[in-house]
From TrEMBL:
Enzyme class: oxidoreductase
GO MF annotation list: acyl-CoA dehydrogenase activity; flavin adenine dinucleotide binding
Residues annotated as domain Acyl-CoA dehydrogenase/oxidase C-terminal: 197-321
Xref: SUPFAM superfamilies: Acyl-CoA dehydrogenase C-terminal domain-like, Acyl-CoA dehydrogenase NM domain-like
Keywords per UniProt: FAD, Flavoprotein, Oxidoreductase
EC number: 1.3.99.-
Annotated protein name in UniProt: Putative acyl-CoA dehydrogenase
Domain (Acyl-CoA dehydrogenase/oxidase N-terminal) ranges: 7-119
Family: Belongs to the acyl-CoA dehydrogenase family.
InterPro entries for this protein: AcylCo_DH-like_C, AcylCo_DH/oxidase_C, AcylCoA_DH/ox_N, AcylCoA_DH/ox_N_sf, AcylCoA_DH/oxidase_NM_dom_sf
Species in which this protein is naturally found: Pseudomonas wadenswilerensis
Length: 351
């Protein structure tokens, strides 16, 4: 059996990587940090032109009808570039959540999914258990939790309070709103199932971005190690520095297997997908954490400064490490599965 990605998937990844490296530069990220919204309509428009806003939208709604396995390599590239736009959360969490509503909400699905595919609307999704919603200020439709319910609320019906993040690229908001029967689109067991799926896909998307961020931090550290010299030689020629980067490279390679296996499990709705997602999140988060730590060491004191590009990606890795379940929650899910304790941990805890 061939477990490798297809040539089309790899070609799509190469094209997205080239685009993001050209358009999402460290200089552009710094500019967005200084803007009021932290977002760029022109950049989002370019992503739409590439077809990235339609990838997971069902074909019946004008999308490509692709799945999580098709998107996972692109999510990695979004992490590598430090893309601030909420493409991953939209494609992996928001669109499947909206598409998973029952038939009575078909008009709502058709209206919003078609607009999302065309780039005329954006989604924001409330992470279960987290009072802050990412990118609520640019969303046209918010999918919010209220008890065991899913609510679809237009932005005009909510008020937002901005909250700071360790990563200035993340735009976080408290959302104040009033639940009503008209906004409720799922409840009880159906809503629990939808939020469980959203949690797994959110953690999967974060894992992919963390893997991309780990690779970017290694590349930055390697480049710096050949520029900086001590005793007349690049510091990258010293064995101790080589070991720092080699240790991270090994972690990255070992994290790829769990990530891709989890993407396959989620895409095909296989049993045990929750624990596989948790394994992937843990492996990728640990690789990114080690990459940040060792890259700082390679940079020396320079690694902590605002001027060095490393901090752009290091801060994002620190922030994403805690999103869609921190390492403690995901370790608990893996432990519960391994030892069959019957422990239910957080959203998406069914195995």
């Amino acid at each position: 059996m061939d477990f490798s990605f297809s040539s089309d998937q790899l070609l799509f990844q190469d094209n997205v990587r080239s685009f993001l490296l050209n358009e999402v530069t460290p200089e552009r990220l710094r500019e967005l940090w200084q803007s009021d919204s932290g977002r760029c309509a022109a950049l989002w428009g370019q992503l739409v032109e590439l077809g990235l806003s339609a990838i997971t939208v069902p074909e019946a709604c004008g999308g490509m009808g692709m799945n999580e396995l098709d998107f996972i390599l692109l999510a990695q590239e979004c992490g590598y570039a430090g893309l601030p736009e909420p493409l991953v959360d939209t494609m992996l969490v928001g669109v499947p959540l909206l598409a998973g509503l029952d038939a009575q909400h078909a008009p709502l699905q058709q209206r919003w999914l078609a607009r999302i595919a065309e780039g005329r609307a954006r989604l924001a999704v409330a992470e279960p258990g987290n009072p802050l919603v990412s990118d609520a200020h640019v969303a046209d439709l918010l999918l919010l939790a209220h008890g065991d319910e899913v609510h679809a609320v237009e932005r005009s019906a909510v008020s937002l309070i901005r909250n700071a993040s360790v990563d200035p690229s993340r735009q976080l908001f408290q959302v104040q709103w009033t639940p009503s029967a008209s906004t409720c689109v799922a409840s009880a067991e159906q809503a629990q199932h939808l939020w469980a799926g959203a949690f797994n896909r959110g953690a999967l998307g974060n894992a992919a971005q963390l893997l991309g961020l780990a690779k970017r931090m290694v590349d930055l550290a390697v480049d710096y190690s050949f520029e900086r010299k001590q005793f007349g030689k690049p510091v990258g020629s010293f064995q101790a520095v080589k070991h720092l980067m080699a240790n991270v490279a090994v972690q990255i390679e070992f994290a790829k297997g769990p990530l891709y296996r989890a993407a396959h499990a989620v895409a095909h709705n296989l049993p045990g997908q929750a624990v596989q997602v948790s394994h992937a999140k843990l492996a990728c988060a640990e690789a990114a954490a080690l990459a940040a730590k060792n890259a700082i060491q390679v940079h020396g004191a320079m690694g902590y400064t605002w001027e060095v590009d490393l901090q752009l990606f290091m801060k994002r890795a620190w922030a994403l490490d805690k999103c869609w379940g921190d390492r403690g929650l995901h370790k608990a899910r893996v432990r519960a599965a391994l030892f069959d304790t019957g422990l239910a941990i957080g959203a998406g805890s069914t195995f």
